[in-house]
Amino acid sequence: MKQTILVTGGTGFIGSHTTVELQNAGYKVVIVDNLSNSQANVVDGIEKITGVRPAFEQVDCCDFEAMDKVFAKYPDIAGIIHFAASKAVGESVEKPLLYYRNNIVSLVNLLELMPKHNVKGIIFSSSCTVYGQPDPENLPVTEDAPIKPAESPYGNTKQVNEEIIRDDINSGAPIKAILLRYFNPIGSHPTAIIGEMPNGVPMNLIPYVTQTAMGIREQLKVFGNDYDTPDGTCIRDYIYVVDLAKAHVKAMERVLDTDSDKLEVFNVGTGRGVSTKEIVDAFEAATGVKLNWTFAPRRAGDIEKVWANPEKANNVLGWKAETSLEDTLKSAWKWQEKLRNEGIQ
Amino acid sequence: MKQTILVTGGTGFIGSHTTVELQNAGYKVVIVDNLSNSQANVVDGIEKITGVRPAFEQVDCCDFEAMDKVFAKYPDIAGIIHFAASKAVGESVEKPLLYYRNNIVSLVNLLELMPKHNVKGIIFSSSCTVYGQPDPENLPVTEDAPIKPAESPYGNTKQVNEEIIRDDINSGAPIKAILLRYFNPIGSHPTAIIGEMPNGVPMNLIPYVTQTAMGIREQLKVFGNDYDTPDGTCIRDYIYVVDLAKAHVKAMERVLDTDSDKLEVFNVGTGRGVSTKEIVDAFEAATGVKLNWTFAPRRAGDIEKVWANPEKANNVLGWKAETSLEDTLKSAWKWQEKLRNEGIQ
């Protein structure tokens, strides 16, 4: 049995998939989640998939005393993967104070508690949004691309949290950290036991695609067909959530069990740019379901194209995105069908 | 009688001088200070100077519930001047988590409480450090100069707090704000009843100068004599603290009583660059006291030269730095003599 890992936000989309992969790799997991944006029964799903029930504590990471008690209750926690965060870009524009407080205080609490409880490593969920606006000068984006002013309070909390971790380590804190900059995570577990649960109208492309295919949304709008890309639609790097989850396992091994630098940054993407139109076509081809979609004007704030150079993660973490776009989109559809079958969405 | 103003950090260096000027201008003042870096008897000093005793509450701005009670106790608070912050650059490098937590949470608390208690305006203490490193491209620095990555956690909290205020106002919060970017505040009240109280070895030039003149420090080191400046030493914009305090009064009038934009930014400086060597010479000339000083190698992280373009504050706030460098340095020396006479330093 490997070490015990605290997964904050462990009942959320990426957190739950990462818990599955951590348990598959032999780690013990303690989930902390305040359930503000996820369901407790995700823990049942994780147990069903892996045969192991992770420990679960319904606690808000912003509550310093409560988090202190969690570490005291599980004194063998060796590392943390910190997913817990308010994460809706649009909501962050409307409620910036909520985002700054939640996302910064929760991280500062963890960093303050780590030395006290002898926790050695932390993996932080960052985002390619730090490469910001306008479009990156060089594609694919490497980890040393310039950090741009954030476009939203949400994006700013990712940047500030990266800076807080860097400053903490530079101050001599006895911890190590890895920042993972995700590109666009999509798909669901192949079992369709856990998956992405958008609140209300989805802001991300894939849930909108699957809900349109299911008839929940009338029509998919593809924003802009006159971008400087081969088919005129925006290009992103869509990374399968299970592949992304496996990157966390590799990162945790590295941060806890090697003499790696105290702070490292990795892009987590496929290295392949895929256009919105290609997603639509690939979804129809993979599922045989016809999508009702149309072009609409460009949406303010969208960047034209961005995709990762994942070579550093490939070479240093020994991790690579392996799942085809077809299988990824099939998993998303299977999850949507499951939600329908269970009367959830 | 004008409105009631909450001054956080009101027993500190700039906060106490600003309270004096607010009261001189007819405002009622409520001071909130946790006394972590100042003394309660500063309130006596303010009363002695102005004839009016400000209300005082020993409260930490990071304590949301306690701040809520302060606003409830003084329901006529119309505006806030927010000085309270951890402010030592060097300490912030050693204890970054303390700085991020204190400086960000205290601001977020105030911004959340303002609409609830019908507080209309806030003046935020920012700093020319946001123009950052390396040296500004254009001198003097105007308010639209690019914001550079912060050189210290302290500087970063100033930047992030500017962004939080901007995001809050962009979200539609029913408040107005003015960001004042201070250059180098120096000197003390002409009465020598209140002044700057550095903790331990001063990190700023003027307290080091006056303590050396007093014999508390053996020798003043002037770091670098080979900069690209007329006499080879660094150039800064030293602003008399009483002039700076008066800028806050003008800013408060504007934010509360005019139809100004919801968010405005002003440099607060003299517009005149003064070299370290000039300060040494001017101090000796103004006080007749000989300084024991020597050149020392450049200090890592010092920028070569920076001074403000204060035209926007001159024109829009109707404020101008008026005190001569000679009178400013005399005030600093008078304060140092008072500290000696009272056996304090």
Automatic annotation (TrEMBL), chains A, B:
Signal peptide: none annotated. Keywords: Carbohydrate metabolism, Isomerase, NAD. It catalyses: UDP-alpha-D-glucose = UDP-alpha-D-galactose. GO terms for molecular function: UDP-glucose 4-epimerase activity. It is an enzyme of class 5 (isomerase). Pfam families: GDP_Man_Dehyd (PF16363). Its cofactor is NAD(+). Belongs to the NAD(P)-dependent epimerase/dehydratase family. Homodimer. This is UDP-glucose 4-epimerase. It comes from Xylanibacter rodentium. The gene is galE.
